[in-house]
Amino acid sequence: xxxxxxxxxxxxxxxxxxxxDICDIDPSTPIFQxxxxxxxxxxxxxxxxxxxxxxxxxxIEFHEGPVYFSDxxxxxxxxxxxxxxxxxxxxxxxQITIRRYDIATxxxxxxxxxxxxxxxxxxxxxxxxxxxxxxxxxRTTPARISRTNISTGAVETIADSYYGRLFNSMNDxxxxxxxxxxxxxxxxxxxxxxxxxxxxxxxxxxxxxxxxDPKLTVVSDDFERPNGLAFSPDESYLYVSDSGAIQGSGExxxxxxxxxxxxxVLEGRYLRNTQLFAVSAECVNKTVxxxxxxxxxxxxxxxxxxxxxxxxxxxxxxxxxxxxxxIFLGRGAPNxxxxxxxxxxxxxxxDIALYRVQLNIQGAEFADTNAEGDTSVILISKxxxxxxxxxxxxxFLHFTYLFAIFSVVTSL
Length: 412
Description:
The protein is mainly beta and 412 residues long. It has a single domain, classed as 6 Propeller (Neuraminidase), CATH 2.120.10. It is built from 4 helices and 32 strands. The radius of gyration is 20 Å and the shape is globular. The termini are far apart.
């Protein structure tokens, strides 16, 4: 099977431009833009960008919700598409499907068609290997978080309202190691014309399926448009992107948020001490003008580096919020996911194309996967991660919390 491979030197425009999401490309612009030795260590001396698949007829095939599942071969991705470019009737049935991309055979199939998918967007996998999907809903069907048993195909509703008020259009979801489900719910569905007027704000939620009531709580209510989210490797921080700079179906507002915020996670359930972690870099489009970076999907590696799908590709920040490098595509990359047998393959959704980059580091969820016996792979270990103020502060925060508990107990 042949893939198109781009070297680290120069990115030549391989794909048809879709208006609105593309930066103007200088043909000499390198794909891998290194701003720090930290990023050079991550990509290695000879990084390559593999074009795995292109969509047909400029359709938005590779849009959101990539989730990696292992199998007895190279694994597969489940991801969500986007309505076709000529979508205009808000009264027609849902237009988005969940697809399966088989990595070994390079074959795409339909996992759940549009008649059942209920406008899916972000997705993740829980510790039991089940698929969690943000279903945005439609005018006549409510939004919900659904959970699918991959083995049986059985689908169940996890959450579909907050004290009787219907959700907007859930965007992204992540599962903490304790089984709690955290998700964002911006009002893009209403802005884009396929959902009714919002009944509730653009909030971030936590749902504890096995905990005491209230199982569902709002953990943050001050975002313009909360979008992607991810925990740090030790789960002491939660990163949430705010894509408020894009309103509706394409109006860009550089005066509105296009950044990533970081919260301290206290007692595994509360968000405190919000900080501006990073602002996604902007680019220039000759037709549209100055475009904000539009941070979307967020993923984290074992060293706590933060990978953000943005307006010009993938932007990578170290745990202190410093932009250490880019994987420059010259177009938007709505989402991404770590995968592969060792968890060091980065799959990038770029709407009309699917890319892969082999890295020298694993995604945070693969921290316990090792390369023993495979001498061809040398990966950065957790012990080799650079020291950052974020890791020190996270450890201090945990110590302070334990000390406070100890002080209360000993004073009784």
